[in-house]
Structures are given as C-alpha cells and as structure tokens.
Amino acid sequence: MSQPKFYLTTPIYYANSRPHVGSAYTTIVCDVIARYKRMCGYDVAYLTGTDEHGVNIERAAEKLGITPQQLVDKNERIFRELWKLLGITNTEFIRTTELRHARAVQNLVRRTQERDKKLEPSQRAIYQAKYEGRYCIYDNLYVSDTAEPADCQICGRPGELVSEENYFFRLSAYQQKLLELYKNTPHFVHPDFRFNEVKSFVEGGLKDISISRKSIKWGIPWPDDPEHVFYVWYDALTSYLSGIGFESEDAQKRAEFERFWPADIHAMGKEIIRFHAVYWPAFLMAAGIELPKQIIAHGWLLFEQEKMSKSKGNVAYPEPIVKVLGNDALRYYLLRDVVFGQDGNFSRESLITRYNADLANGLGNLANRTLTMIERNLGGVMPSCGSGANLVETVKGENLGEIAKLYGRFDFSQALEKVWGLVAACDKFLAAEKPWTYADDPARREALERTLFTAADVLRIACVLGHPVIPDATQKIWQQLGQAGKIEDVRIDQLKWQELKSGTKIGKPEGVFPRIDKKEALERIATMENEIRNPDSTQPETSTTTTKKPAEGASTGTSAAGAAAIPAGAPGAGTSAGGAALAASGAGAAPAAAAAPAKIGIEDFAKIELRVGLVKSAEKVAGADKLLKVMVDIGDEVRQVLAGIAPSYAPEELVGRKVVVVTNLAPRKMRGVESNGMLLAASAGPDGKAVLCTFAEEIPAGAKVK
Ligand code: MSP
Fold first, then answer.
1. 205: burial class by Cβ within 10 Å (0-12, 13-18, 19+)?
2. Which residue lies with its CA nearest to atom 29 of ligand 1?
3. I need a labelling partner for 135 at 20 to 30 A (CA). Which of 468, 495, 560, 643 fits?
4. Ligand 1 mean position to 274 CA, how many Å?
5. Ligand 1 geometric centre to CA of 269 (Å)
6. Among candidate residues 225, 229, 226, the one with its CA nearest the CA of residue 217
7. How many angstroms separate the alpha carbon of residue 585 from the centre of ligand 1?
8. Residue 537: what pLDDT?
C-alpha cells in the first residue's frame, strides 16, 4: 500500500522585519503537526516561506535606504536560520520573489482568464474597473470601499486613499458556491467558532475585490499588462501552489504537485482566516483547481493584552530564549500554555517556571533518576518487565492511542497535560515504592528490576508522545534508554505499554534539562534581546555611506523583479503549461522598482548640525574591538565622540586630523562610555574599511558644514 500523503502550510511571513515569537508560534504548531503525521506513517510535505512583495516592504526598505530586494534577502535568511534553530522540519520554502512563484501566479490568472472566455463578460471572474477606497498597507487589506477616511480593523491605523484602474476578482459571484462548500465540508475551518464567523461574513454578502495595483512597483507584473502588479493576497496565497511545484518547468516537481495538492491544512493566526477561507477557495474555484481541505486558525500571543507585533514594539524574539533555555523549552511552553484557537499570554517568566517545573523537575528528573539507578544497580542493562509487571496503577488505564489523537485534533495542550500526567504518576509511584531502599538487597533484585522497568517504560511512552513537541530531548532520552533507531520512526499511533526493549545496554545517563536560575536567565535573555533590538549598540558610531549598487545588481537573480524583465521567448519564459510568459511584453515589462532612499526636504537636512572638528586625542575603548574614543575640538568645546573605526585607524593616526562631526546627535552610551556626536565616514561595503570625511583645504575647527 502506498504511503498516504499530507501537505500542510504556514502563512508565508512578511519579510519586512525579522520573525518574533508570534511568527514562531505558527511555525512550531505546524512542525508539531508535521512530526505527528510522520509518526503516523504519512509522507509529509510542509511548506513555509516569506511574503516579499507589497508596499510595506517597499517602504520599510526605503526607510533603511536599501532596495526591497536587499531587505527581503536579509530577512529571509533570518527566517530560515530561526527555523533551523527551532528544529522546524519544513520540506519546502517559498519566497514570493522567486521566479517559480511569479510563473505560478501569472499562470493561475491565465487559467482563470481562459475559463472566463467561455462566460459572458458580466460573469467573468476577472475584469477591469476603477477602484477607489482606503487601504491598510500594514495588514494589506481594504479597510473601506469609499474614499472616506477609515481605520484598519486589525491595527487601527488610518487607511490610505487608493484610486486607480485595477483588475478585479468577482468575489460576489462566489457567495453561494462558498456557502455550499462550507455546508459540504463541516470541518473546513477549525475551530468551529471561527468557522461560524466565516459563514456569517459570507452570508452577509461579498464584494468584488481588486487584485492588481498600478501604484506599486514591487510586485509580480500582470501578464500582458505589466503596468499592473498583483495585489499581495493573490500573489501571497498562490505560494501554497508554487511552493509545491504548481506549473513548474521541472517534471518531477510537477509530479510532486500532483501528489500533494490539495493541501490538507493551511494553518495561520486568526486575523487572516478570511483570506484563506473566503478569497482563496474562490480564486481556486475560478481557476478550476481543487480546494484545500482545512483551514486551522490559532489565536494571538499577547503581551499585556495586546497582540505581539513589531509595529507596537512589544515583541519577544525566539533566539535568546532558545540560546538560554533550548529549543524544546520554547516549543513546549507555547504548545502547553496556549490553548490552540484561543489567545494566550506570553511571558518569559512563566516560560522559565514551566521549564523548571515540567522539563527540569518533571521529565528530566524522571529520566535522570531512572537511568542512574539502572546504571548503578543493574550494570547499565535495561531490565525486563518480568512476570506480573508492576505497571503504575494510574497510567495503566490511559489509552495511549487517544492521547496521540489529541494532536490530530489540535488539542496540543491537553495532549501534553496527559503525557505529563503519566510522568507525575510515575514520580508518585517511585516515591511510594522507594526502590533506592532495596537497591542493594539481592533478595529483592526482581522487584528492583520490575520497578525500574516500569519507570523506564513510562519514560519511553512519554518520550514518544512528547516527541512532536520536544524533539531534541526525547531523542536523547531514547538513546539513553538504549532503544534502537530514531524515536521519530516509532509509530505514535500504535504505542503499547511494556514494549520497552530489555537486555540492551543503556546509554550514559546525562541530564537533558538542567534547572535554570530564573533571574539569571531573564537577564541573559534581556541582554540578547537588546542586541537584536539595537544592533547598533555594539556597532560603529560612525556614519558610513555604503556604496549602493543599482537595483538590478542587487537582485538575487531569482527574484520576480528579475523575472519580470525576461523577454518573452527567453529561456524560462513562455514554455510552461498554459503558455504563460513571465514577461508579458518582453523587455518592456515593468521591473520592480529600485528603492532609492526617500527624498527629504532641505528642512529635514537642516535639522542635522555638521561641523568641522579637529581631533585632539583618540584611544581604544576597553572591551570593544571596533570603538575608539575620540576627543574632538568643534570650535567652542571639545567633544567626546565614540567612533567604530578602530579596525580602520590606529588612534595616533587621527590626532591633528580635520573631520566632519554631527554635533546635534542625542548623547548615547556604549560600553558605559558616553558619545556626544558622530564622525562621518564612507565605506565601500559592509566589511569595507571606513574612510573618514576630511578637507583638502584649510578650514578652522567649528566651521559649519552644509
Ligand atoms: N504575509 C501574510 C500571510 C500570507 S499567507 C498567504 C501575513 N504575514 S505576517 O508576517 O503578518 O504573519 C502572519 C502570521 O504570523 C499570522 O497569521 C500568525 O500565524 C503569525 N503571527 C504574527 N503575530 C502573531 C502573534 N502575536 N501571535 C500569534 N501569531 C502571530 O499575514
């Protein structure tokens, strides 16, 4: 019998900033489902990725003075690295700036237009019309279909006015079909209360939606009309197809698509259900493509009752937590403390409390005690259960299959509660049995073996059932228990008591969850978080003008921006099924914009006070490789300025030099030393030598630079 397939996806995350614990939550949830399904014998495809188009990316890049491509390249790397750090087992990763994705989006619309040809113009799914409304660039949704000022329902920011000729999708025509879908697929949206919200929304009537933009350049060009780019949701949702081989030029990838589509689960946060449960099925129906089977939505992670979000500045980052407490700790805490579907509070303190209680004192301690006794008192050989094995009374009755199934029902928190119930019962059993009191009594050897076998068997069961959530520690304990192979290959849905392999030599007992001092851990996490928030705090305080490459040069070559410029007929264009050429009109197709830094008015520039400075002395700052403390005469005073130019200049080289100083910069401390300004310098790249700005002619210290 061939292996059943399972395809699940996370949302593809905006690449305008780095991921936080909120984004990690969805990805971890999906990873738990993926691991669980694999342990049930499924061949799992797991897709995640980055959403790299749209005006908020354009603007974020503009603010930083880099191109959108540079920005998304940087953030995409951070996403991938974080997923590795968190032990995420995604099999696919899609970026919406990839050529394969642009091809898929263009071909999806072409398929729709092909089908439309058979319909009256008034019934066609895609048509052109003038759009006027308010749009939230942060959440990428229309907040109102009139020009009247209106605020975004998600973030509360004012919507921006949009007025232009767009391509529209006739969503209004899909109301009945969607309601039928919901009727025929009773679990299409999970949890049920969210499904009810979706149904009411659709029952209330649907408006057509604009799916293209003229005002944005950073996007995938519309086929045959490159003045338009795709509106982000049409583009973004299609990544669920492109990421798994839809319209791929590679036959093997296309076969993969045939095998895995339709998606079994699209998982996400509650704020984007509407796009997935309403827009997405309608887009697919219009193109004649099978629909996903289920949409599951979790609540938000809150910080003081507010959604954790970078724009609100209330985010926690996963990396410091993982570095201090380990990958399993964050995964366990999120799945154990947040009930799937509901909002949950995130707090580093309760995370550490949970870690110490359940992981260090709970599972970790049980493993340590049991294995150490087997090592010391039974020569390190796993005992057999003997006759009439003494299984812990309370665990005997637990139906292991039912516990495993809780994962399949997204009741992660309850599944873990049950598993830790087994651990607690075993602790209680050992406390009552006190095997250490007769460990050296040869007459009670059999009882000792039975007791330790029982404890080790509970450990085995807890590890298998806990593996989808805490993969690292459970694999380690598995090895220490002397069990063969990888724990991930054990069938979680076929677990039985007393199947612990005996007679094997156990591994060396080693603690997997050391107890953590809360105060110290919180301090370490806070320090690392600060470094993430203020990457500059250990960076040069010198303003370096990085040589900027032209946008084309900056593109990775896989971007849709690059794709858009491929003339029809060039390799890769116009050859895929459906005959879609990426460049709708050859070289004339709109390339994505090169984001130059935003223009500023002279009044903005006038806010910066620049003066000629004469360096009086310079010395290294203790404990900072890059920093020099420079005393610089700016005419009416001598200023102390820290500059990150130690790799480029020896302190003594600077004395007597004329430099350009930003004199009205707010003071800032680095390594405990205050800096009262900034020296201007240029550098030829991120690792390039800094070259201080200076003057070819004589000029007195204190003179204004303007
Ligand atoms: N790019 C769109 C999704 C397109 S999918 C075709 C997007 N991206 S996002 O970066 O804003 O990520 C949204 C997802 O991140 C949410 O749906 C949710 O899964 C997760 N979260 C972001 N903040 C979160 C919390 N504070 N709490 C929990 N999850 C959060 O929307």
1. exposed
2. 22
3. 560
4. 13
5. 6
6. 229
7. 35
8. 53
Pocket test for ligand 1, best of 12, 31, 56, 268 (most atoms within 8 A of CB): 268
pLDDT at 572: 33
Render pLDDT for 172-212 as a digit per residue (tens, 0 to 9): 999 999 999 999 999 999 999 999 999 999 999 999 998 99
Ligand 1 centroid to residue 271 C-alpha, Å: 8
Helix-helix angle 445-466:412-433, to 10 degrees: 170
Q: Give the position of tokens 């009086």.
A: 616
Mean per-residue pLDDT, 663-669: 84
Strands of 456-609, DSSP E? 543-546
Query: What average pLDDT does the structure give for the chain?
Result: 86
642 C-beta neighbours (distance < 10 Å), count: 26
Strands 638-643 and 628-633: antiparallel
Ligand 1 site-directed mutation target among 12, 18, 26, 308, most atoms within 8 Å of CB? 26
Asked which of 205-209, 290-294, 567-571, 631-635 is least confident by mean pLDDT, the reply is 567-571
pLDDT above 50: residue 574 = no
List beta partners, residue 638: 633
Both tokens of 158, joined, read 């004012």
Residue 510 corresponds to which amino acid?
E
Q: Given a cut of 90, is residue 1 above it in pLDDT? A: no
Q: Angle at CA 241, nearest 5°, toward 237 and 245?
A: 150
pTM of the model: 0.77
Residue minimizing CA distance to atom 24 of ligand 1: 22
What spacing in Å lies between the alpha carbon of 309 and ligand 1's midpoint? 9
List the structure tokens of 126.
Answer: 């895609």
The length of the chain in residues reads: 706
Q: Summarize pLDDT for 602-641 with one digit per residue, the tens.
A: 766 777 889 999 999 899 888 788 889 999 999 888 899 9
3-state secondary structure 331-368: HHHHHHHCCCCCCEECCHHHHHHHHHHHHHHHHHHHHH
